[in-house]
TrEMBL record:
Keywords: Disulfide bond, Signal
Protein name: Ig-like domain-containing protein
PANTHER family: FC RECEPTOR-LIKE PROTEIN 4, IMMUNOGLOBULIN FC RECEPTOR
Domain Ig-like: 8-99, 203-256
UniProt keyword Disulfide bond, yes or no: yes
A GO-annotated cellular component: external side of plasma membrane
SUPFAM superfamilies per UniProt: Immunoglobulin
GO molecular function, one term: transmembrane signaling receptor activity
UniProt-listed GO biological process terms: cell surface receptor signaling pathway; immune response
């Protein structure tokens, strides 16, 4: 099996940092024959271009015989990549998928909810908090495009103010040119008459959460239906659904609407949004990076074809 047909698998431990932690990187290939050397990189955002360049980690420029590498004293969120090579001259594998370790940087949203009426998006803002003064907010849209706040809003200090627009759907996160990343949040907008209102951040297991059905116009004593994964879970006039202690089994797609109108009119029901627990939040950025990895591999192949 030729090395350049392989994509190595990189794992990092721990995924979440305490100050000064050492991070262990492990790189494996599908055919673990002898003779491999392993090369280790940090993923550096290439601003304002929407992909990353790879900077060799100190002490790894000549590669290592061992399939692991330890980064000492890590304090900030960072992305890592590995690749492997063998033969003389060396034949390299593709780069691994970018894998991240996470620090305490956070992205907050105001108003604090996952769904928004398109008519209200002029008041929507996203704020970065962490050990940096050079934040920008990124969006990976539902249509597959990676853009920065300046494209669809304005960045003032650590806050991005979204301009009114027809589509805000996507995954958002904070990032710096030095490689800091925040958590990611999933935000959507709708022209429907209803949204299901719950906090944009993952819910901590064991904590209570209330889902509210919000309307563009006030509905008095209307019978409101709540659905999980398209299955009716509540049908009364309260207009809210309460979960006293969230568990992983509560994860799913939730929506709400007026009784009897779930099938008659799309505008009378909210879109469905995913409620997730804090233990699964990291999957959002992993999904984004998987899409970016496919894009980068495509660029790499085009470059090598042209050469």
């Amino acid at each position: 099996m030729s090395a350049d047909k392989l994509v190595p698998n990189l794992t990092v431990s721990p995924s979440w940092l305490s100050s000064g932690d050492s991070v262990t990187l492990n790189c494996s290939v599908k055919y673990p024959d002898v003779g491999w050397r392993f090369y280790w990189y940090k993923a550096i955002p290439n601003l304002p271009i929407t992909f990353y360049t790879m900077e060799p980690l100190p002490g790894s420029s000549n590669g290592t015989e061992q399939p692991y590498f330890i980064v000492y004293g890590q304090t900030q969120t960072a992305g890592y990549v590995c690749k492997a090579a063998r033969g003389n001259p060396q034949s390299f594998t593709y780069d691994s998928e970018v894998k991240f370790v996470w620090s305490g940087a956070t992205l907050s949203v105001s108003p604090d909810r996952a769904q928004h009426f398109i008519t209200d998006t002029m008041s929507l803002s996203l704020t970065c908090a962490g050990d940096s003064a050079e934040w920008t907010v990124n969006r990976f849209s539902s249509s597959g495009y990676l853009t920065r706040c300046a494209t669809w809003g304005s960045m003032t200090g650590p806050t991005c103010y979204i301009n009114g627009q027809s589509s805000i759907d996507g995954v958002y996160w904070c990032e710096t040119a030095t490689g800091l990343f925040s958590n990611a949040v999933n935000i959507s907008g709708t022209y429907n008459n209803a949204i299901v209102d719950f906090p944009v951040h993952p819910v901590t297991e064991g904590q209570p959460v209330t889902l509210r059905c919000k309307w563009t116009t006030e509905l008095n004593l209307a019978v409101i239906s709540f659905y999980k994964n398209d299955k009716l879970i509540q049908n009364d006039t309260r207009g809210e659904f309460f979960i006293p202690a969230v568990s992983k089994s509560d994860e799913g797609f939730y929506k709400c609407g007026r009784k009897g109108r779930m099938q008659r009119s799309a505008g009378s029901t909210s879109p469905a949004s995913w409620i997730q627990t804090s233990t699964t939040q990291i999957r959002l950025l992993q999904m984004v990076r998987a899409h970016l990895r496919a894009f980068l591999i495509g660029l790499w192949r085009i470059k090598n074809f042209l050469m």
